[in-house]
Structures are given as C-alpha cells and as structure tokens.
Amino acid sequence: MTADVLKAAIAFFVAVVLQATIVSSITVAGGKADLVLVTLAAVALLRGSIFGAVAGFYAGFLLDAANLDTLGVSSLLLSLAGYWIGRYGETTGRDRAHAPLVSIAVVTVLYAFASIALHAMLGESVSVQGALRSLPAQILLNLLLTVPVYALMRRMFASGQRLPVKDVEFG
Amino acid sequence: MRLAALGSTVQRAASPAHPSSRSAGVLRRRLVVGALVVVSIAMLTVYFREADSGPMHSIQGAVASVLRPFQVGAERVARPFRDAYGWSADLVHARSENEKLRKDLRLLRLQAIQNQSAAQENADLRKALTYISGATFPRDYDGIVASVTSYATGEWEQSLVISAGRGNGVSVDDPVLSTDGYLVGQVTKVTRSSSEVTLLTDSTSSVTARDATTGTIGVLEVGEGPDRPFELNRVPKEKIVRKGDMVVTAGRRFSRLGSMFPRGIPIGSVKGHTQSDIENFQQIQVDPFVDFSSLDTLVVLVPKEPQRPGP
Question: What pTM does this model have?
C-alpha cells in the first residue's frame, strides 16, 4: 500500500508538471488534452474509489499551485472525479476492457460542466460556448491519451493486484 | 488440492462479502470523500477571502516554488520539439510572407525617415515649451524577462504563469509584452518567485487602444467566435479607421473601462470594420501581432520611477 501511495504521488507530480508545462500549451482543433484527469481515471479504476478520491485531491492541489489558480477548486473537482471513476471500476466497470475509455469520455464532459459551474459560482468569467466548442476535441484527445496512460499505470500498479499462483489454493 | 505453475499469475479470488464489513467499507468510503470535499471547500473559501499575503497564498507560493524547477526542466526538454514544429509550420507560409514583408519594408523605410525628422521636431518643441509628459514606453520602463512555466488548462482560462515574481520586482497590474515588444496582457497575481499573467485573449481583459495613424480611440476587447479576434469597441461612426492601421495602447482610461498601460505599445493591425444603421458605434476587428498559442518568453514592464501611473 505504501509503495502504491509513493508511486501515485510521483505519477501525479509528473503528470501535473507535464500538464502545466507542455500539454496545456498544445491546442488541437480548439481543445486541450487533460493528462491529469486521464492519469486519475487510470489510477482510480485500478485502485478503487478511496484511493482515487485522495489521489484526485492531491493532483488538484498541485495543479492549482502550479497554475496559481484558486486553491481547492481542482482538488474538489478531481476528488469527486476520482471517487466516481473508482466506484465505476468497483461496480459496473469491473473487468471490462472498455471501462477506461467509457469513464474518461463521461468524466471529461462532467468535469468540464462542473468546472464551468464552479468558476461561475466564484464570480469568474466563463464561456459556456467556448467550452462546448472545445469539448469534442478534448474528449478525443483524452481518449487517445487513455490507452498509453492506462497501460503505464496498470504496469505501475500491477503488483498490488495480483498474487503468485503458488499462494492460491483451489478446491 | 494445491496447484503450482511458476511464472504465471492469477487474479486474486474475491473475498466473501460480509454484511457488517461491507457497511463499514461504505461508511469509510463516504467519510473519506466527505472529508476531502469539506477540506477542498474550506481551502477554497479561505483562499478566496484572504489577502494575497495570507497563509493559503503562501502555501501556494511555496508549492509553486517546488514545482518550478521541474517545470523549467520540462519546458527546456520540450522547447526543441516545439521550435521544430513552429519552424515547419512557418516554412509553409515563408514564401508569401517574404513578399509581403519586402513590400512592408519599403513602406516602413519611407515612414522611418519621416518619423525621424518628426521626432526631432517634437523634441525641440517639447524643450521649448518645457512640456511635462507622463511615463512613456519604453524610455521610463525596465523590462524583466521571464520564461513561461505553466499554461492554463481550461479553454476559458486565458492565463499563464511566468518565472518572475515579487522577488524580481514584479507587481500586480504590470504590463506584459512579448519579446518582440507587442502587448500580451498584464500581471494579475504575484507570488515571491512567480506571477500569473492574464492574456489579452481573456474575456475579462480590456485595453484602451488607439489607431496610431488616425488617433481614433476605443476599447480593445476579445470578440466572440472560433478564432476569437479582437474588437475595438466604442468607436463612434464618424471616426476614421482604415484597414491595415496599427493599433497601439492609448495610455489612458476610456470612461471607466480599460486598464492603464503605457502609451504606444503595439497590439495589432486593423483587419476590417463594419457598421450598421442601428448601432452608434463601429465594429472594428483587430488582428493581434502576437501568436498567443506559442508564448515561451515574456517581458514584464516595471516602471523605473517608484511612483506608478495612476488611473
């Protein structure tokens, strides 16, 4: 468990640095990929809802610090996103190959609307039209990122999920 | 029976669900999420209500300082690839741009000669009148060059973070330019070692701008539409604005709108203008000189004199 926490801490630190520095500077068809959200989806699916929620809080805190945004906004949204994806993984999405893709497509849309609502509540100027325009491209970019990121995260967190066959008894 | 197959693995068998352990798990899960939500909202509230020197801002500044070396490192690794992409993209337009630039150069040479004599005449007349002017750009400002360390994630958030902060002399409201000397935005948040720059493309930004050729003044704001061109608003119909005119900062407020930037910072050129019978003002589209999607290094203008220009 401690090893997984350490791995997740490093993974999200790297994801936030890459997101803030490189990924956010690349706009394709009006949309930007969200590496942090994709990493969170992969980790939450692999490690469950509680781990996903805590990881989301940590990633959100780092993201808000890196972008000098209002502290707590991304933490709140990513905690809920991590929890929701984790629950989906624990229940409906268990053992389904398409679970990462479905969850990232859904959570990208929900995250975008929740983010608009929260920023509007804080009195910031938000453009629903602009967000809607960029949403299809963002979903597509996130889906493209999901495949390699999920594979990497599964490799990173694989040891906690499986046991050697010699320790398993049948009959 | 005990089976062994070395080198292969198998999924762990699901543990039998026990009603009491299941309900404890549900309770634990809800408690954790509830606590995280409450802490997030508390953080948000405190951050929102406190001053820029408050504890949450200090924590943010400290974490940003820890992240900064990694961001600078990542930026350095990514820069060659970004430059290569930009170089390839530029190559496509190079021929047509070359012709246009040669044409512009001929015109600008003529204008430079005229401007030189006009500037000399202006200086002589100011001296004769003992004319006292406000802070002028670039003479009365120092430039602090800083690299971009972070880009906003959301489509509606048109801001970025640079690697210079309070410790380098940067203050809130300082104008920010590209390395070519074109207006990019202004500083809206400062920590000890980094600052947030809100770009002109943000819907909250507005600048009092002037047609450098005709002297017509309006308020430059970002427009609607997919490519979000700029619009010079509140320009009465009778005022003259021509296509291709350079638009620069006016250096004063327009009514209650706009921000205080030094006079004469280039922003863009007039792309076109339209007017309808029912509107009192013209709609003027302005093409910015800056490519806001590829900003790597910026210059923050800091007044040389401690007294800052007032509204």
Answer: 0.74
